[in-house]
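> forwarded from #structure-qc
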């Protein structure tokens, strides 16, 4: 009698959905062991007081506890808040001028890009890609000892990724951070900015500019169909 072969495909399909999704995701990202290790270090940021000036180098990110809300004075001044909002909207409009179709692949060399000044002293930007349905991409460069912001995210979700910075010298301050904390960044760290959030990015380095990739997505009035996305992911797992 011939041995009965085990149906591995059927066994995988009967696995609970959340386990299949986890298995599928681990297969996608298993090769990025360095990034996985970085995520582990980032998951538990160290909280230090605002008066402390030193940050341990083995901390990928350190949260600095502040004594007061850094944007409280701005929020109490309607005229200044309106000015910051106008400047923020103007910046989004500027980086949306380089329009390409979504089918194109755009390769850019950060060293050769011509930077345009922003309303922040010591800060330049270069539009990279813009598509009304996808979003706007721009390179933002902060010179040493300069600050980008305060900036109000008047668009939809925004991502700020650190491309090339001096580790632990870039300070992120956001109105959405818990307990009025600042966060220090190192290379390849990124921040997700919610709509209407207020933030600043400060480059405390005395010698190295901070190069950041900013991705600004448009606001949408259409609700996201999460079940549709989940169903598509399920098909990928089961095939």
């Amino acid at each position: 009698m011939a041995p009965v072969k085990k149906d591995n495909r059927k066994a995988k399909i009967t696995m609970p959905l959340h386990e299949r999704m986890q298995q599928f995701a681990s297969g996608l990202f298993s090769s990025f062991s360095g990034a996985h290790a970085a995520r582990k270090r980032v998951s538990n940021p160290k909280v230090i007081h605002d008066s402390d000036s030193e940050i341990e180098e083995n901390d990928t990110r350190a949260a600095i506890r502040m004594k007061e809300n850094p944007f409280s004075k701005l929020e109490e001044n309607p005229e200044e808040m309106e000015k910051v909002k106008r400047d923020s909207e103007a910046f989004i409009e500027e980086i949306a001028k380089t329009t390409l179709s979504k089918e194109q692949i755009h390769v850019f060399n950060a060293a050769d890009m011509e930077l345009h000044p922003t309303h922040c002293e010591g800060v330049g930007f270069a539009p990279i890609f813009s598509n009304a349905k996808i979003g706007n991409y721009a390179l933002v460069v902060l010179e040493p000892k300069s600050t980008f912001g305060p900036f109000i995210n008047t668009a939809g979700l925004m991502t700020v990724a650190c491309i090339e910075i001096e580790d632990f010298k870039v300070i992120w301050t956001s109105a959405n951070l818990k307990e009025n904390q600042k966060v220090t960044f190192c290379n390849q760290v990124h921040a997700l900015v919610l709509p209407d959030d207020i933030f600043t990015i400060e480059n405390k380095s005395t010698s190295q500019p901070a190069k950041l990739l900013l991705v600004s997505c448009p606001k949408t009035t259409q609700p996201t169909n999460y079940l549709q996305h989940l169903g598509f992911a399920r098909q990928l797992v089961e095939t």
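QC bot note: Residues 27-58 have pLDDT under 50 and may be disordered. The domain at 37-216 is CATH 2.60.120.10 (Jelly Rolls).
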